[in-house]
Each structure stands twice: as structure tokens, then as C-alpha cells.
């Protein structure tokens, strides 16, 4: 529509003025994803967001997602200005893993290799040996297990349990969870599968174990999009944030995509298949931050140097 096109133009102009590029996650509003694509930015999973931001020549990154994504970009590119539509957008996994408690836990197990999910603060990353995203978590833990290493895993317990089961690695799990994915329920999914017996079930591994057990494909957002393209089934039941439907439908236009049921069935759950923090990003606050530059990510430089070590390790491993 005309209003949207006008907004895109205004934002494109501000991006140019600031020498900025948009780095967006699949869970953001479809308008934001379309804007990122139309202006030479990227829409991707958290691993590719980190890589794209690091490698892009722009001097300013506008990270549309949640805070840990902006922090990761800043840690990898301290010389760049990193802006976010709002610094208020956080993540229940990050919130559920305060650095003091986490450090104390690690200190109690000094013989363990510390592996943390990207969905953590810069301070938690700085205490880690490895950072991983869901795209590479299984491969990295498999690698560490083959070296005989014992692992501390934080913060997502469901992803941790999934990896533990898949690799057989010796892992101590933190008890965090994602408020979006923990709402998916096996019972509802089974009922839906009974309605559509020919459907494939796609599940993000932040979901509960009983939901993962029903999946035809388990993976990161980018891996689920690939599964929608490559699995033979016409119908897909998708257990992850509904923001993914925009790119998934683009990638697999002939597939029928259905949202997996959540505990509250739209009535009571806090976050029925859509992350409340991802939803804080909008075209309005993107334009506002490009104009006034106030939502800037800062990471203490000494902390950032330490957090960069396990992040670089991941990016080198995933090459
Ligand atoms: P990925 O895009 O890396 O699968 O991460 C999902 C996520 O929870 C981001 O918030
Ligand atoms: Fe965090 Fe879950 Fe939101 Fe991702 S979807 S940002 S893991 S709360």
C-alpha cells in the first residue's frame, strides 16, 4: 500500500544518510523483513545475522530482533555503531541466566567446558568457552564430546536436553526456557496431526521434549525453512514463532503452512507463537532510531574482547 511504500522510502533515505544496513531476524514483523530485503539488508537466523553484520561494509548496523543479537553484532564489530529499534526487546533465556549466578555455577564445575547459547548477555558469553546458535549447537557439542569434554550448557534446557539425547554428551543443564516455544504442547499437536495425517511437523528445538519427539524435522529457523522446501509433504505444521511464515512461504510457495497449537490456544498464554520482544520492533521505531540514534548498543570494550573469543570460535567452526 501507499503508506507502507512511503515509510520504506523514508527509512531507505535515513539508512543511506547513516551508511546503515538492516540485519533482521525471521521472527520480526513481515513488513520489517520485506524492508530489510528491499534495502540490501539481511533476514536470517541468529548465526547468519552475526556473520552478515560482521562482514558488511556499512558503518552502522540496525539490528531488528532482540538485545542479544545487537550485542553480538557490537562484540564482533566494535568499530561499528549498532542501533536497535528499541533496547527494551530482550529474551526470556537471557533474563533467566544472570551472570553472577551463572559464574558461580561454572566455578563449581571447573573441569567442564562452558557452552552457552547465543541468547545470552555479553557478560555470560564472556564467561563461556563456546557460544553456539541452534544451527550449529549439535555439531559443536558432538565435536566437544568426541574430545572427551564434559559440558556446562546454558540457558535453554529444552535445546540442551535435545542435544544431550542426540549426541550422548555429558552435559550439565541450566534450567532456562523460551516463553514462546515452551507453550507448544504435544497433545494439541497430536490432535492436529490426527486432523492432517499427511502433514509434516517442523519443530524448533527450544520446544519441550514431548513436542520434539513428534517432529519430522527439528532445527534452527533457517533449517526449518529448508525443511519446508525439501520435505515431500504438502502440508506443514510449524512449531516456532509465527514470524517465520513470511520467509517460509516465500521459500516454499506451494506448501500449506499451519501454526502448531499452543497451551493457551490464543486465550491465556503469554506469548502464543509470537515473541513479545520481537514484536516490539516496528517500522515506526526503526525510522525513529535512524533519525535520532538514541537506541544504541554499548558493550564494555574489555568484556566485549572476552566475549568475542567464544563467538569467533563458533563462526570459525561453522565456516
Ligand atoms: P535461530 O534463528 O538461530 O534458530 O534462533 C531462534 C531464536 O530463538 C531467536 O530468538
Ligand atoms: Fe528469546 Fe524465545 Fe523470543 Fe527467541 S522467541 S527472542 S528465544 S523469548
Structure notes:
InterPro entries: NadA, NadA_sf, Quinolinate_synth_A_type1. The protein has 319 residues and is of the alpha/beta class. It folds into 3 domains: 2-89 and 278-298, NadA-like (Rossmann fold); 93-173, Rossmann fold (3-Layer(aba) Sandwich); 181-259, Rossmann fold (3-Layer(aba) Sandwich), CATH 3.40.50. Helices cover 45% and strands 15% of the residues. The protein has 15 helices and 12 strands. It has helices at 2-18, 30-38, 46-55, 67-76, 92-95, 99-108, 122-126, 137-146, 157-167, 186-195, 209-212, 221-230, 245-251, 283-292, 301-317; strands spanning 20-25, 42-44, 60-64, 81-83, 113-117, 130-132, 151-154, 171-173, 200-203, 217-218, 235-239, 256-259. The strands form 3 sheets. It has a 4-stranded parallel sheet, with helices on both faces. 50% of the residues are buried. Bound molecules: 1,3-dihydroxyacetonephosphate and iron/sulfur cluster.
Features:
319 residues; alpha/beta; Rossmann fold; 3 domains; four-stranded parallel β-sheet; 12 strands; binds 1,3-dihydroxyacetonephosphate; binds iron/sulfur cluster; pyridine nucleotide biosynthesis; iron; metal-binding; transferase
Amino acid at each position: 500500500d501507499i503508506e507502507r511504500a512511503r515509510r520504506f522510502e523514508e527509512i531507505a533515505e535515513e539508512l543511506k544518510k547513516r551508511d546503515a544496513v538492516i540485519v533482521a531476524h525471521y521472527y520480526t514483523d513481515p513488513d520489517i523483513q520485506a524492508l530489510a530485503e528491499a534495502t540490501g539488508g539481511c533476514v536470517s537466523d541468529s548465526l547468519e545475522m552475526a556473520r552478515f553484520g560482521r562482514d558488511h561494509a556499512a558503518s552502522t548496523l540496525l539490528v531488528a530482533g532482540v538485545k542479544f543479537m545487537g550485542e553480538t553484532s557490537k562484540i564482533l564489530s566494535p568499530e561499528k555503531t549498532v542501533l536497535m529499534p528499541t533496547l527494551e526487546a530482550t529474551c526470556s533465556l537471557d533474563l533467566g541466566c544472570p551472570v553472577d549466578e551463572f559464574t558461580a555455577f561454572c566455578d563449581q564445575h571447573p573441569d567442564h567446558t562452558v557452552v552457552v547459547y547465543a541468547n545470552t548477555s555479553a557478560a555470560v558469553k564472556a564467561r563461556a568457552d563456546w557460544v553456539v546458535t541452534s544451527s550449529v549447537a549439535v555439531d559443536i557439542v558432538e565435536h566437544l564430546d568426541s574430545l572427551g569434554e564434559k559440558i556446562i550448557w546454558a540457558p535453554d534446557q529444552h535445546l540442551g536436553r535435545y542435544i544431550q539425547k542426540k549426541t550422548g554428551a555429558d552435559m550439565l543443564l541450566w534450567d532456562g526456557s523460551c516463553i514462546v516455544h515452551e507453550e507448544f504442547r504435544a497433545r494439541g499437536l497430536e490432535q492436529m496431526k490426527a486432523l492432517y495425517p499427511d502433514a509434516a511437523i517442523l519443530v524448533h528445538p527450544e520446544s519441550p521434549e514431548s513436542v520434539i519427539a513428534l517432529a519430522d524435522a527439528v532445527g534452527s529457523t533457517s533449517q526449518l525453512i529448508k525443511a519446508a522446501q525439501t520435505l515431500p509433504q504438502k502440508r506443514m505444521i510449524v512449531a516456532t514463532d509465527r514470524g517465520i511464515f513470511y520467509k517460509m512461504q516465500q521459500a516454499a510457495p506451494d506448501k500449506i503452512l499451519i501454526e502448531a497449537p499452543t497451551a493457551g490456544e490464543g486465550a491465556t498464554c503469554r506469548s502464543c507463537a509470537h515473541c513479545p520482544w520481537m514484536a516490539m520492533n516496528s517500522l515506526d521505531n526503526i525510522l525513529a532510531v535512524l533519525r535520532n540514534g538514541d537506541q544504541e548498543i554499548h558493550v564494555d570494550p574489555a568484556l566485549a574482547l572476552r566475549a568475542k573469543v567464544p563467538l569467533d570460535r563458533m563462526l570459525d567452526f561453522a565456516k
